Amino acid sequence: MTPAPGAVPPPPGGYRTPVRHGFPETPVETTTRLRPVRPRQRWRTAAAAACVVLGLGLIGGAATGAWLTGDSSAGTAKSPYTAARAAWHSVPVDTLFPRTLKGRGAGPGGTHRTWTRVAVAADSTCKDGLDPLLLTTLRSVGCERLVRATYTDATRSAVTTVGLVFTEADASGMQALRTRFTEQKLGARKDLMPRTYAPEGTSAASFGDKQRASWTVNPLTEIPVVVLAVSGFADGRAVAEPQPAGDAMASGAETDIAQAGLGHEAKGVADRVERGLRTAVADLTEQPG
């Protein structure tokens, strides 16, 4: 057979090249193009290496300096004393003195109590908010600030003023004050009762010095704060013989103050406010200084 013009003649022996059948190839340019990588320049490599060496040197020097000087304040948490001393202005008032306090088992015989905040006093110096003799007693620890609030119970038959004295003392100073209160039984002295806060137009308006019935004064040692509280009858009746909260809460106490649970009122409100303060200070100590 004569081959057609222009056709490729078959190889000798009549062998033909096989035709391949299959899937078509991937069209050109269907994949993302790679961005060209510029050739590295020696001066950039050298500069990068120098920066690494310099950075490591600075970090090592700072760490060594902190180790030698004992300065580990950067990036560390505040101490409880540092955090607590500033809590009177750094913690919201509703955290220091919640609008409502729950006293589960805080009443006589383990009954439950609920206290509602009547008013909050403006922060003040201790001279403006404490009796002179109590002020003198706390002079050894100094006074940074005094904050107070007044609460009433659910029946509105009792009122209680609670206060926080933020001191300038360190741990040893607060421990010395606590020891003094314990050994000399200062917390039971009537002439060291806290003052009331009785704003006009509230249910505590008639809660004055003569209406003070039961009280507690508690110097803390973990933080530089003295917690104090004083309670009385909401109807404004005068009290001839005030009674410390510990005595009014004692088993078998039969005074009008004890029977009315005013010792429990003072201690219960003070304890809940103290717990809230401790929680707030714990949160502050976790924040970097």
Automatic annotation (TrEMBL):
Keywords: Membrane, Transmembrane, Transmembrane helix. Residues 1-13 have a biased composition (Pro residues). Residues 1-30 are annotated as: Disordered. The chain crosses the membrane at residues 45-68. This is Secreted protein. It comes from Streptomyces filamentosus (Streptomyces roseosporus).
